[in-house]
């Protein structure tokens, strides 16, 4: 098994994050620092991160969480803010969020120790759909603004892909995107003249928020994990 895959299976981080750990010289194999993510890890080999030995692959677990506003989508926060990791019973497993949901937003976010799954769900080429409910400021949203969102809008980091949009009320929409740029939904809405007052993620791929209460979590079933893997 390649070293980067071993770290992902051990629940250390996603594959991309594991590659960074290796490049920074923080990973050792049988006492020697390794900077090649493709290095083979033989059965029984000793792998350590920052000097801490790993126990090898741990049982996979994935949670769905209805993130409250004010909670950050990281495993640790240097400013002492509550994190999504603190809201799930990891029972000693090193879980981390799949992608990000900005601190001001609420809704569905996944946490897992399965690095392979996390990599598939966040890699741009898989185009996993994510649906949001946005409460908008300004005048009632116009048909012209909805049309611009559907066509894609130009942001400072380039044009977005077309989005699926439906009106929920005079100042509320449901918007589905397949990208994962920083604060993308908020920036798209601002670009068409409507600042976002409240934002909630309703769906991540085939998974829906449904009746999960704010701050509550549940462990995904094998069926749901199969649906995610099929993406």
Key structural traits:
231 residues; 22% helix; elongated; 9-stranded mixed beta sheet; alpha+beta; 15 strands; Alpha-Beta Plaits; 3 domains
Number of domains: 3
Q: Which quaternary structure do these chains form?
A: single chain
Overall pLDDT:
91
State the fourth-level CATH superfamily of the largest domain: Alpha-L RNA-binding motif
Structural class: alpha+beta
Beta-strand proportion: 25-35%
Low-confidence stretches: none
Radius of gyration, whole Å = 20 Å
Range of helix content:
10-25%
Please report the distance between the alpha carbons of the first and last residues. Answer: 23 Å
CATH class category of the largest domain: Alpha Beta
Helices and strands, in N-to-C order?
HHEEEEEEEHEHEEEEHEEEH
Give the number of helices. Answer: 6
């Amino acid at each position: 098994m390649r070293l980067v895959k071993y770290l992902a299976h051990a629940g250390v981080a996603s594959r991309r994050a594991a590659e960074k750990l290796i490049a920074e010289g923080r990973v050792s194999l049988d006492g020697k620092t390794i900077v090649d993510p493709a290095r083979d890890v033989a059965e029984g080999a000793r792998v350590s991160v920052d000097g801490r030995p790993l126990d090898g692959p741990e049982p996979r677990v994935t949670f769905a969480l209805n993130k409250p506003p004010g909670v950050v989508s990281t495993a640790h926060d240097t400013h002492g803010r509550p994190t999504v990791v603190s809201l799930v019973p990891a029972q000693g497993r090193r879980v981390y969020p799949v992608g990000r949901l900005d601190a001001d937003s609420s809704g569905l976010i996944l946490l897992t120790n399965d690095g392979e799954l996390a990599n598939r769900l966040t890699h741009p080429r898989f185009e996993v759909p994510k649906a949001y409910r946005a409460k908008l400021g300004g005048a009632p949203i116009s048909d012209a603004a909805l049309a611009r969102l559907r066509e894609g809008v130009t942001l400072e980091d380039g044009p977005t892909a077309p989005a699926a949009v439906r009106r929920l009320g005079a100042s509320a929409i449901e918007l589905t995107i397949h990208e994962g740029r920083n604060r993308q939904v908020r920036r798209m809405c601002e670009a068409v003249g409507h600042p976002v007052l409240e934002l909630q993620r309703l769906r991540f791929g085939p998974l829906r928020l449904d009746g999960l209460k704010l701050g509550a979590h549940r462990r995904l079933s094998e069926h749901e994990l199969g649906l995610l893997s099929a993406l």
